[in-house]
Design brief:
There is one protein chain. The protein is mainly α. The protein has 18 helices and no strands. Helix 3 runs antiparallel to helix 9 and helix 7 runs antiparallel to helix 14. The longest helix has about 40 residues.
């Protein structure tokens, strides 16, 4: 049964002018694009193919296929939670409903702070790519930070205007970038380099270095992250209990196919007999291939990469602001973060806060240490943050269905899949920490611990004080259903 915002929060915590988010404003296509854009398709393959090839050789396409299968296992328990709890709170709501509000707060906090900060890294990276490509080739001397700031301003404008304009923006950009990626891959198949067209990349017998192959799979797994973000727009989706799980699963299927086909096509186009040169290329292989196969039209690859960087920033901004809003409306974060803009029905205070934090970190940290270092550090930090989030989600799925929906409890979905994915995530964590990464990525695990410590501080100092615990009764509930 639909209820109003007043049915969710105590009277003292409501504002008559706050009508909540714009419900039912996007369909399956828009929700699907939210997840796909946050995955960042072309960035995810164009800037990982050299590394995966360096580690796995000709078997690089197999690493993307393996990562896709692991992510499907991770998604299995999530789909059931998304069907029952399609809330803007996302992981906060899932874990609160399954394990409890304290664990839910920590999970929601980690996800919210990560997707709040990630746009700073991605805007810096995209700005640096633009500056590096446009400066030498076209004599355009605009510094990277100016491009990065412009990207974050566009993100703010989309977030301020509302989910509909954000999704329309994502649809256009994502379709274009995926068309460029697939187009380059297909051209490579029709105009193969030395070695011709072959399927060696999918033959496990060709894996020469198991350790390198594993590291490539690890990177590929986290190239898929973002598929979960459909939950962030659950409040604004039509029939969210049906749409959100379909968008999560559909985004994985589409991106899995895109990554595997594109990685294979790029290797074939480059030439599988010259695979070492691809791995060692000082320029992103996609630029080299586009210049060779498309008669110097690498500008199309640059546009696709900028689209991808801008798209993931817009999608992360949406995820961050909706997650913050979802947590705040239960009282677990300050009430002002749950305020919405009356005309556009956007979480306006969360938009201001997220945009200010992202822009501040991008400029204040990115300028001293450099945009690529900022990207590597914050991107790796996100990897470490995702691990406990997914593990807690696995535990929550088991407890939620075992206790609250025993008739739907399934051994494969709620026991086997969580155990397999948790084991994979713990293995990833171990090999990511032993040995510790080199400077400056060395800071990444400690930044992740800092995120956790800040969340624990807010939980203890603010949310567990006597008289401040009402949020705990609402943390695992939906605001729109009884």
């Amino acid at each position: 049964m639909l209820t109003s915002q007043e049915d969710v929060l105590p009277p003292s915590e409501n504002k008559a002018s706050d009508a909540g988010l714009q419900r039912g404003s996007i369909g399956l296509g828009g929700t699907l694009m939210q997840s796909i854009a946050q995955i960042s398709p072309t960035l995810g393959v164009f800037y990982t193919i050299a590394f995966t090839t360096g580690q796995a050789g000709a078997s690089a396409p197999l690493t993307y296929l393996s990562a896709f299968l692991v992510c499907l296992v991770i998604a299995v328990p999530m789909l059931g939670l998304a069907r029952h709890l399609p809330s803007a709170g996302g992981f906060y709501t899932y874990v609160s409903a399954g394990i409890g509000p304290k664990a839910g707060f920590m999970t929601g906090w980690l996800y919210a702070i990560m997707v709040t900060i990630v746009p700073a890294a991605l805007a810096a990276f995209t700005g640096a790519v633009l500056a590096d490509e446009l400066g030498p080739k076209y004599g355009i001397g605009i510094p990277w930070w100016a491009y990065a700031a412009a990207i974050l301003v566009v993100c703010f404008a989309c977030a301020y205007r509302g989910i509909v304009i954000s999704i329309k923006f994502l649809v256009v950009m994502t379709i274009f970038e995926m068309a460029v990626g697939l187009g380059l891959a297909v051209t490579g198949m029709f105009q193969p380099g030395p070695g011709g067209v072959n399927f060696d990349g999918f033959n496990p017998a060709n894996v020469q270095n198991p350790s390198g192959f594993f590291l490539a799979v690890v990177l590929s797994i986290f190239a898929f992250t973002g598929f979960e973000s459909a939950a962030a727009v659950g409040d604004e989706s039509k029939d969210p209990k049906r749409i959100v799980p379909k968008a999560i699963f559909g985004s994985l299927l589409l991106i899995g196919a895109f990554y595997v086909v594109t990685a294979w096509g790029l290797q074939i186009g480059w030439g599988t007999s010259d695979i070492e040169a691809l791995a060692a290329s000082p320029t992103a292989p996609a630029f080299v291939l586009a210049d060779r196969l498309w008669n110097g039209a690498s500008i199309l690859v640059l546009i696709a990469l900028v689209n991808s960087g801008l798209g993931v920033c817009v999608a992360c901004t949406t995820s961050a602001t909706r997650t913050i809003y979802g947590i705040a409306r239960t009282g677990a974060l300050p009430e002002f973060l749950a305020r919405t803009q009356p005309k556009h029905r956007t979480p306006i205070t969360a938009v201001y806060v997220q945009s200010a934090v992202a822009l501040g970190i991008c400029l204040a940290v990115g300028i001293p240490i450099g945009p690529y270092n900022l990207f590597n550090v914050l991107g790796t930090t996100g990897t470490f943050v995702y691990i406990p989030i997914f593990i807690l989600m696995n535990i929550a799925a088991f407890m939620f269905f075992r206790r609250k929906h025993p008739s739907e409890f399934n051994i494969l979905a709620h026991v086997v899949a969580p155990i397999i994915s948790t084991a994979a995530l713990l293995t990833i964590a171990y090999f990511s920490l032993v040995p510790l990464p080199a400077f400056p990525v060395l800071f990444a695990p400690f930044l992740a611990l800092t995120y956790m410590a800040l969340g624990a501080l807010v939980l203890v100092v603010r949310n567990l004080r006597p008289g401040k615990r009402d949020w705990m009764t609402r943390a695992g509930e939906l605001p729109d259903v009884d």
